[in-house]
Design a protein that fits this description.
The complex is a heterodimer of chains A (about 500) and B (about 375).
Chain A lengths: L1 H10 L6 H11 L6 E8 L3 E8 L5 H12 L23 E4 L2 H10 L3 E4 L5 E4 L29 H11 L5 E8 L5 E8 L5 H12 L9 H8 L11 E3 L2 H9 L3 E5 L5 E4 L11 H4 L2 H30 L7 H11 L6 H21 L2 H21 L5 H16 L3 H39 L1 E2 L2 E2 L29 H4 L10 H8 L4
Antiparallel strand pairs in A: 1-2, 2-4, 3-5, 4-5, 6-7, 7-9, 8-10, 9-10, 11-12
Helix pairs in contact in A: 5-8, 10-12, 10-14, 10-15, 12-13, 12-14, 12-15
Chain B lengths: L10 H28 L6 H22 L5 H9 L1 H33 L6 H17 L2 H26 L17 H5 L2 H7 L18 H27 L9 H6 L3 E2 L3 E2 L2 H30 L9 H14 L4 H9 L1 H26 L5
Antiparallel strand pairs in B: 1-2
Helix pairs in contact in B: 1-6, 1-8, 1-9, 1-11, 2-8, 2-9, 2-14, 3-4, 4-5, 4-11, 4-12, 4-14, 5-11, 5-12, 6-9, 6-11, 8-14, 11-12
The chains are: A alpha+beta (about 500), B mainly alpha (about 375).
């Protein structure tokens, strides 16, 4: 009942009587102690009021720019319209609002709304300011070489950071609001003339279809718009680094920035972009290539390391060199469990330790790691619960899963490791093959906004392999990736790469 | 009739898919069988086989030229009429079922020998058929991606087996070359021929080719690559085992057990079997795809995905029914098998092409 009443009021227009307007707004903001209705006078006679939310607007500025000067200023003639007050308010940006709905929107954004008796509508004053985190180095995506700044929770700071990387009017930022209650602002950033227009409209459509009460993190949006919602793999990439976001924009992808979270979403992505780090491109290409291969190897270990060990120990002992086999047999002699149980035990414990380490307060975290290292590493072996090769395998697997530069992909790989272990424990290599085949079938059929997830592997695009098999020298990667960048093929002047190679720089 | 398969493939994907569709088993058991007849000339037998492969590629290509964008099941009805066409297609689909059954049976014996000596057959078969059904259900585009990924691995695997065995190979084993005339190598070619004429299965993939002109070249490329692989596999067995090859079940795999380099790189048969199985997976799923899409067209379904798993169950059963034991299956490969293959993969298509050409030239064809 009350809701519909409120809605009716909100949809109507603001009148010219200040008292009516205030009553209307006060009933909308009933029981909202943080909303301030400050009444004052312009000159001696004209009554006015300022509506704002404490903490969202800059009180100092309000005092200085509006309230202090109000008493001394001679107001315009009554009935000359709210626009006549714009010159009187010495703030860079003001704009008129006409309905209580607009007032609510502006006030929620932190812009105080000025209402004047005798004038229709109100004036929103851009004095929004709230406490925000300063720009810091993104902890989850650290680099040795490369910019240290990361996105923060404030949308406008983030868009500014992006704009600073790509100073061109071609960088477009469309905005939309999602979430019935949260009214979260979402910005779709893309490079005009590089990004696929079809991709853009698809993205807008998918975003429009989201009907939800609130968006608190990009994860909400990600789960709602992914091509295959049941897949354990992330089909959109997140980053809190402006340089990564800009690099993806340059390759024709779309970046979604969401108010209230430092994480942005990138679409479409391929599996391999989760195994690439920004630094691959900042360091020399020999190093970039080597690091990439190391990462592929350890991603594979993170996925099937324990299962490989279980399969070999249980079914294919002949593969182990004899001397090693003997020492392994000795260490396993007193272990009461089969290798599969041992592996599951250790892996689950490891995952638990890690999760505990992430969530615990920092002071306690150190204790957990000590307990973990001692209990798992030493005590478990001397107690005869697990064998020492197993501990080594689990440790290497743990390190391997930290090698994956993107956390979301790391999680997916960690989860899939467990069914793989079961298959390997029951069917040995055969089970491992079956598991791999199921996994690959799934990966091959996945798409991220229509782009094959495994691109460029086993697709018709061959130039893309330059950025997957190796990290080719920058001067050699002349064209953008086929699936996202074919609308604007060349990223370097044709012919310039030849000159760089021959003479070290275009003339 | 609109095409059921929406995916499109490139000529490279087609070629590699065809290569694995024939290749993975041809190197698995064929050397043993051709060694029985051809003895030291066994490596020549695949060359006779390849001629038949080229013939079959040509048959399939020509038929698809006459009836663009349609598979065997579709054009057989248009060539000889509805009833006769349905009957021919039924025989052909039944033949496909038999082929898949025997392919899976070969792998099942192989896996049990290589990996899991104590595991019941049903578990092994059900596992691989589930994986392949899952892949078939995902569509042709997914299948050919597997082919592109695994075909080079498979080719390299055989090349490496040969290279790593170089110290153990005895080149005297090939002599006397054609010492008893051409006949032994031709007799020994029965099995390679039976495998090479399976290249007619390209008839189910040609309609999905993005660029139709390149189909013939891709098919012939696959035949030549297959020929090279088979000759290499035959040579490996011949040079290592000599006449013994005929008594081995999986001669190339047995050969891989002899790999030992610096006492460290040895006992690699599990890795070899793993890679082999990856190729075998593509082979099984490609054939299962042909069966599924053919059946769907035969029944005039609009989507083939609902029948993937039911057909998968049938395939599991056929893997059991195909022969009471492995020895019987090898006997089948040497007696009835090639005849049935020849009928379905060469004679029927040739007859169809003949009728189609006549109908076209007299202007009554549609």
């Amino acid at each position: 009942m009350r809701r519909s009443e409120n809605n009716d009021q909100a949809a109507s227009k603001l009148g010219s009587r200040l008292d009516d307007n205030l009553t209307q707004l006060r009933s909308l903001y009933q029981d909202c102690f943080d909303v301030v209705f400050h009444e004052f006078r312009y000159g001696k006679s004209v009554r006015a009021a300022l509506v704002y939310i404490a903490g969202l607007s800059n009180i100092d500025e309000i005092n200085r720019m509006i309230l202090q000067s109000a008493g001394k200023t001679e107001p315009p003639e009554k009935g000359s319209g709210i626009d006549a007050y714009r010159p009187i308010v010495p703030v860079s940006s003001t704009h008129p609002v006409s309905t209580p709905n607009d007032v609510v929107k502006e006030v929620s954004d932190g812009n105080p709304v000025l209402l004047v008796d005798g004038e229709t509508g109100g004036l929103a004053v851009a004095l929004a300011s709230w406490d925000q985190r300063s720009v810091q180095e993104p902890e989850a995506e650290a680099v040795v070489r490369g910019p240290r700044e990361g996105f923060i929770e404030t949308l406008q700071v983030n868009t500014a950071m992006l704009r600073r990387k790509l100073k061109t009017p071609s960088l477009k930022m469309r905005t939309m609001t999602i979430g019935k209650f949260s009214q979260t602002q979402v910005v779709i950033a893309y490079l005009d003339g590089v990004a696929d227009p079809g991709l853009l409209s698809e993205m807008e459509q998918r975003l429009k279809r989201i009907q939800i009460d609130g968006i608190l993190e990009t994860g909400y949006i990600q789960e709602m718009i992914e091509d295959n919602p049941m897949s354990p793999f992330p089909l959109l990439q997140t980053t809190e680094r402006p340089d990564i976001a800009a690099a993806h924009l340059l390759e024709g992808r779309i970046v979604l920035l969401v108010e209230g979270t430092p994480l942005t979403l990138i679409a479409p992505v391929s599996f391999f972009s989760f195994l690439q780090s920004a630094e691959d491109y900042y360091q020399s290409f020999y190093f970039g290539t080597a690091i990439r291969w190391l990462r592929y190897l350890f991603t594979l270990i993170a996925l099937i390391g324990p299962s490989l060990y279980v399969a070999i120990i249980t079914f294919h002992q002949e593969m182990i060199p004899t001397t090693l086999l003997l020492s392994m047999a000795k260490s396993r002699e007193l272990i009461p469990f089969p290798a599969l149980v041992e592996a599951l035990l250790m892996e689950v414990t490891f995952e638990a330790l890690r999760e505990a380490g992430v969530r615990l307060p920092k002071q306690v975290g150190a204790a957990v790691s000590i307990v973990g290292a001692l209990v798992i590493g030493q005590a478990a072996i001397s107690a005869g619960l697990v064998s020492s090769p197993m501990v080594m395998v689990v440790a290497v697997t743990g390190i391997a899963s930290f090698m994956i530069p993107h956390y979301t992909m790391g999680i997916a790989i960690r989860i899939i490791r467990f069914p793989m272990m079961l298959l390997a424990g029951f069917l040995g290599f055969y089970g491992l093959i079956l598991g791999t085949l199921f996994l690959l079938t799934h990966l091959f059929s996945l798409r991220s906004f229509g782009v094959p997830y495994m691109a460029p592997v086993a697709t018709t695009e061959k130039t893309g392999l330059k950025d997957v098999l190796v990290r080719a020298p920058l001067w050699n990667m002349r064209i953008r990736p086929h699936f996202t960048g074919r609308w604007n093929k060349y990223r370097q002047q044709p012919g310039s790469s030849y000159q760089v190679r021959r003479r070290g720089g275009p003339k | 009739m609109p095409m059921i398969e929406k995916g499109k493939i490139s000529s490279l994907q087609l070629g590699l898919a065809m290569y694995l569709m024939i290749g993975a088993t041809s190197t698995l058991i064929v050397p043993a069988i051709s060694a029985k007849q051809a003895k030291q000339d066994m490596w020549i037998s695949p060359i006779w086989g390849a001629l038949w492969g080229i013939l079959c590629i040509f048959l399939a290509w020509k038929l698809e030229r006459l009836y663009p964008r349609s598979t065997f099941v579709e054009y057989s009805e248009r060539i000889v009429g509805k009833v006769a066409g349905k009957a021919i297609s039924f025989v052909f689909l039944f033949f496909l079922l038999l082929v898949i059954g025997s392919i899976i049976r070969e792998y099942e014996e192989f896996i049990i020998l290589a990996f899991l000596p104590n595991t019941p057959m049903a578990v092994v078969v059900a596992g691989i058929v589930m994986a392949s059904s899952f892949a078939v259900r995902s569509g042709l585009e997914v299948l050919v991606r597997f082919a592109v990924l695994f075909a080079p691995l498979f080719g390299l695997l055989l090349a490496f087996i040969f290279l790593f065995l170089l110290p153990d190979l005895d080149w005297q084993n090939v002599r006397p070359v054609l010492g008893y005339g051409v006949m032994p190598s031709i007799k020994g070619a029965i099995e390679p021929i039976a495998w090479f004429i399976e290249f007619f299965a390209i008839a189910f993939l040609l309609p999905c080719l993005r660029n139709r002109k390149s189909g013939l070249r891709a098919g012939l490329g696959a035949v030549l690559a297959m020929l090279a692989t088979m000759v290499l596999a035959h040579l490996t067995c011949l040079l290592l085992f000599g006449d013994l090859t005929a008594d081995l079940m999986f001669p190339v795999f047995s050969a891989s057990r002899f790999i030992s380099i610096a006492d460290f790189f040895s006992h690699v048969e599990s890795i070899v079997a793993t890679l082999w199985l990856l190729g075998g997976f593509v082979q099984i799923s490609m054939w299962q795809y042909a069966l599924t899409i053919g059946t769907a067209q035969w029944l005039k379904l609009t989507d083939y995905r609902p029948i993937v798993f039911p057909l998968g169950f049938l395939v599991i059963a056929f893997a059991k029914w195909v022969a009471p034991n492995f020895q019987d299956m090898l006997a089948f490969f040497l007696t009835t098998g090639p005849v049935f293959s020849l009928l379905c993969l060469v004679l029927i298509p040739a007859a169809l092409l003949f009728i189609a050409l006549i109908r076209k030239s007299f202007g009554s064809g549609n």
